[in-house]
Design a protein that fits this description.
The complex is a heterodimer of chains A (about 290) and B (about 280). With about 290 residues, chain A is α/β, with parallel strands linked by helices. Chain A has helices at about 15-35, 55-60, 70-75, 125, 155-160, 185-200, 255-260, 265, 270-280; strands spanning about 1-10, 40, 80-90, 95-100, 105-110, 135-140, 140-145, 165-170, 205-210, 210-215, 220, 225, 235, 245-250. Chain A is globular. Chain B has about 280 residues and is an alpha/beta fold. Chain B has a single domain (about 5-205), classed as 3-Layer(aba) Sandwich (Rossmann fold), CATH 3.40.50. In chain B, about 50% of the residues lie in helices and about 5% in strands. Chain B has 13 helices and 4 strands. In chain B, α3 links the parallel β1 and β2 (about 65). In chain B, α2 crosses α8. The chains are: A alpha/beta (about 290), B alpha/beta (about 280). At the A-B interface, β10 of A face α2 of B.
């Protein structure tokens, strides 16, 4: 089965949801013309990243009649769409979230479970921590979504894999850091390395959509990419430029790779669970030794 | 004792730095509603490098380089600034500050070299920000990471700017990037000087070399070494402690003025929006 992916590597206007929505609609139209089945936007694509006090002004509850989400729901009738925004729950807690829209409906919302609050990051000051990880069924197979720091930790991708995800959609607004003599900044090399590792370790497709542009000196580097279940690079968007990366992937490769390399078949999930329970019982104060 | 083993670790990929900084200047200028930039050209390496980056980002016709000599400024400084202007084909202006600052010097005849230097730096700031308004051009800063960390600048003088494109590059990296961009060798290789009085050099005033300062700052800040670890790495304790005290003592220069918090929501404390808000 062929799936044509569209990775919309966009820049955003900080705090201007209307302007960002217009850009989404432009990219969705371009994707439609190129036969895209599933288009992915980066983390906080509707709002921009470094929101600080803007967080509370741009928050949304994604309902079909919401003025921002209505056109996205409509556009999702013939193309699946992943967007990211600030999600406000019914008790006014704010989350960094990603929504998967398909055939005019909201199929899944992922709320970021790891909020970086160190060095240049301050997400924990503004956002609530998501507390759920689950894969979900789509017309292209079972998918898991993660937001940036979520996949700097190994457990969320691992859990989504065990929950049946064949396609991991990673959404980032990742500022580059660590300029040295390498051909990419250290953080860029790190992200590409772990995404490639996840694809190989899980024999999954890993699809990373990262934004571009600048916010007060943060440099969002782009370089969105797709790794196949062998851990090989399928396609990559350029660095530092807006780009719509349109790439067909062959989902049958999951069958071929897993026939050769049955890592999923042999995974001992119950052993993992037993070991985790032991570690937790021996360390009631914290999650790890 | 001279230690230079950490200079290798300071080396950067100049292609990547150039691409990122050119894109940064273009983006931050245009999103603020500007197409043009203005900067002071001292004839030194920092302002020369920023001129090269800005000309590439905005086009040379959109960059105004201003030479602002005082009567004691060296001819070499003027000539080197002209080299940059000619090489890049940017627009230029020469505004002599002598008739502007001399009346103040005469009013206070006992001015120390420091006060005279500060007055000259602030006079140049006045000229640049006036040209900014006249030309609808953003003022490009030319401070590097080393001098910013050491507070080796005049507050509201040469440190005043809209953007600091090379503010995260140590002097060693500034030299490396300047060579890669083709800044003339006579500018790259001469001893850095604020040229506020004849014979002044940065390293003479600081009391240590830029290579020493760069490596110590890199270890303490970028690599999070403790002072003891920096000493174990081969640097003299006296020097390491001196550099770190200087960083601490000059921190006020790197922060906005402090507001006393009285209300529920206070500028600088809990009224938090980045500058690129809405753009």
């Amino acid at each position: 089965m062929q799936l044509t992916l569209g990775l919309a590597q966009i820049d955003t206007v900080l705090g201007d949801v209307k302007a960002n929505l217009e850009k989404h609609m432009t990219y969705i139209e371009q994707a439609r013309q190129q036969g895209v089945d599933l288009v992915c936007f980066p983390e906080l694509s509707l709002t921009g990243y470094n929101l600080q006090d803007l967080t509370y002004e741009v928050a949304i509850r994604p309902t079909p009649d919401h003025p921002v989400f209505k056109p996205l729901f409509e556009a999702s009738r013939d193309m699946d769409i992943v967007v990211s925004y600030v999600d406000e729950d019914s008790r006014s807690r704010f989350y960094i979230a990603a929504a998967y829209l398909s055939q005019g409906e909201l199929l899944h919302v992922h709320r970021k479970v790891y909020l970086p609050t160190y060095t240049l990051f301050d997400e924990g000051r503004y956002f609530a921590w998501g507390d759920d990880l689950r894969a979900f069924d789509t017309r292209f197979g079972r998918i898991g979504m993660l937001l940036c720091e979520d996949f700097w930790h190994a457990s969320p991708p691992t859990l989504l894999w065990l929950d049946g995800a064949e396609l991991l959609l990673m959404l980032s607004a990742s500022p580059g850091r660590g300029l040295d003599t390498g051909d990419k900044m250290a953080s860029v090399r790190w992200v590409e390395r772990v995404n490639q590792a996840y694809a190989g370790l899980f024999t999954d497709f890993v699809v990373h959509t990262n934004r571009v542009g600048f916010e007060d000196g943060f440099i969002f580097w782009g370089g969105s990419l797709i790794y196949d279940p062998d851990g090989e690079l399928v396609a990559q968007a350029p660095y530092l430029e807006e780009h719509l990366l349109v790439t067909p992937i062959d989902l049958n490769q999951l069958h071929r790779t897993r026939a050769r390399l049955p890592l999923l078949r042999d995974e001992r999930t119950a052993l993992t669970a037993r070991t985790l329970e032991r570690i937790i019982s021996e360390n009631p104060e914290g999650g790890a030794r | 004792m001279s230690v230079d083993q950490y200079l290798d670790q300071l080396s950067i990929n100049t292609d990547l730095a150039r691409r990122a900084l050119v894109a940064f200047i273009r983006d931050e200028t245009t999103r603020a509603g500007f197409e043009r930039a203005v900067l002071g050209l001292s004839g030194g390496i920092d302002s020369s490098l920023v001129a090269y980056l800005t000309a590439e980002a905005l086009g040379p016709e959109n960059v105004l380089g201003v030479r602002m000599p005082y009567q004691s400024s060296s001819q070499a400084s003027l000539d080197h600034a002209q080299l940059v202007i000619d090489a890049l084909g940017i627009r230029s202006l020469t505004v002599e500050i002598t008739p502007m600052v001399d009346p103040l010097f005469e009013r206070f005849p006992d001015l120390s070299a420091l006060r005279r230097g500060n007055i000259m730096a602030r006079q140049r700031m006045i000229i640049l920000f006036d040209q900014s308004a006249a030309d609808r051009a953003l003022v490009m800063g030319t401070s590097n990471k080393t001098e910013t960390l050491l507070g080796y600048s005049t507050l509201f003088g040469d440190s005043a700017a809209a953007l600091q494109p090379i503010g995260d590059l140590y002097k060693y990296q500034v030299r490396q990037l300047s060579r890669a961009l083709g800044v003339p060798a006579e500018i790259v290789d001469k001893p850095p000087s604020a040229d506020l009085w004849p014979g002044q050099t940065d390293e003479g005033e600081l009391g240590y070399t830029y290579d020493e300062a760069d490596q110590i700052l890199y270890l303490l800040i970028d690599r999070r070494y403790t002072l003891d670890e920096a000493v174990e790495a081969g640097f003299e304790r006296k020097l390491v402690e001196q550099v770190w005290r200087t960083v601490q003592r000059t921190h006020y220069k790197r922060r906005l003025p402090v507001v006393a918090k009285l209300s529920q929501r206070t500028i600088g404390h809990d009224f938090l929006y980045v500058r690129d808000w809405g753009t």
